[in-house]
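Q: Convert this sequence to C-alpha cells.
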Amino acid sequence: MSPTRKPRRRNQPPDPDQHHACARCKDHYPTAAHWPDGPVCTFCYQAAKRAEGTCMACGHIGMVPGLDEDHMPLCLRCSEIPLDLTCTRCGTETWLAKAKTCWRCLLDDIVRDLLSGPDGVVLESLEPLATAIVTMPRANSGVTWIRANPKVRELLAALGDGSVDPTHEALDALPRTRTVEYLRGLMVEHGVVPPRDRLLATYERWLHDKLATTVDDDSRKIVERFGRWHHLRKLREYAAAGPVRTGSFLRAKQSTTVAISFLNWLNERGTALADCSQHDIDAWYATGPSTRQHAERFLYWARSNKLTPKLAVPRHTTGTHELIGETERLHIIRTLLLHDDLPAVHRIAGCLLTLYGQSITRIVALTIDDVRSTSSAVSVKLTDTWVELPEPISHLLRQHLEKRPNTNTASNATSRWLFPGTMPGEHLNRQTVIDALRYAGIPSRAVRNSTWQQLVRQAPPQVLADALGISATTAMQHAERAGADWARYASISRKP
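A:
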C-alpha cells in the first residue's frame, strides 16, 4: 500500500459551547460521524479514513480506521465502523479520493487522459512514462503534482497529441524550465528517450546562449574555441567515465563567464587579446572583484595556444588553508549527533564530513550498496575500506535507510542512491548539502581541513589516505601543516 499523510493541522480553536468532545482527540470540534467509540470530529474522521496498517485484533493488513481501548488500530470488521473503503474500479481497500475511486485509479485516469493521442490511446513509446507516474508510491502526491502545475499538464498533453516528440532535440527546443528537465529525466530513467549526461548537455546549451554576451565577433570566436575545445572536451571525457560532477560543470561555467568579462574589459580599453600586456593583466586583477581571479584558466589556455604573449598569471588561493578550532569542531560534532534541528540527511553528511574528512561530493555519491547494516553495527564503504560507524550515527543511518527522502515520486522509487535527489535518477545535489550545513553554521571546507589535521596527528597519512580516499600527497600536506612528524614512517601499503 502507498504511504499516506496525516490531514492538515486545524486552523481554528476548539469550541466547547458549540460542539461535543471528540471520542478520539477529546477536543470540541464539529462532529463528522458517530461511530461505536463515540462522536468523531472532522479532523479525526479524515485521519481514520486514510489510516493504513495491521489490525491488532485479527491481523488484517489494510485500512484500519478503528481504535481499541488501548488506542491500537482495528480494521473495519473488528471496529464495526460503517465505512466503505473499497475502490469500485480496482477493488482495492485503500484511501479513496472521490466517488469511491482510489487515488491510484484517479491518477491513472488523469495521466492517460493527458497522454492519449487523438484516438484515445497512449502511444506504446509513452507507455513506460505513464506507468512510472501511475505506479509512484504516493499516488495522491502525483494527482496534486499534475493538478497544481499547469506546465506538467501542458507538456504531457503535448507529448500525447504529438506536438512534442519524445526526443532530446524536441525538448531542447522548449523553454528551459524545471518541469521540462524533470520530465526529461523521468523519460530517460524509464527508457522513453536515450540517456545523456544532463550537465554536459546543459553546458553546451548554456555556452551557445552565453556567446551572445560578447561585444565583438573576434571575442566570440575566442570564447567559443575556449568553451568547445577546452571545457567541452574535458566534460566529455568526464562523461565517458561517469556522470559529470556538479563542481566540474560549475567551474566550466564560471571560467567561461569570467573569460567573456575579461575580453569585454579589454575591448573597453581598446586592446585586443593578442596585444594584451602584463600591465593589462595586473590591472584586471587589481581593480575588480575577487571573482576576476577565475580568469586564470582562460589566461593559461590563451598563453598555451599563443593567443597572448608569455605573461605572468597570478595564482589564486582556493581557501585550502581555512580552518576552525578543535573546540568548535567538537561542538559541531555534538550538535550533529544530539540535536535534530537539521534533517537526518544533512546530519549524516555532516558527521561523515567532521569525523572522517569526507568531501561532500563523495558523500552524496554514496549508494545503498556502500552501507552494511546489521543488528549490531552499521558500516560505510569509503573507497575500498569499510568503516564501522559509532552510535548514534549508526542509528541515524538505520532510520534513514528505512525511509529515504525523495523516493515517493515516480523518479526515484527504485533509486540505489543513499541520498536520492529531486531530479530523476540523480543523487542529492552537493551544493544543497553545503548550503544547508553553512546555514547551520558549519563551513564545509574549513571543517574538512580541520578534521584532516586532527586525523593525521593520530595515524600515518598514507594509511589514512588509503582508508579514507584522498591522495597521499594531500594527506602529507595536512600532516605538515598540523606539525605531525611521520617522515620516518614506512607505509604498510608500499609494494616490495
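Confidence is low (pLDDT under 50) at residues 491-496.
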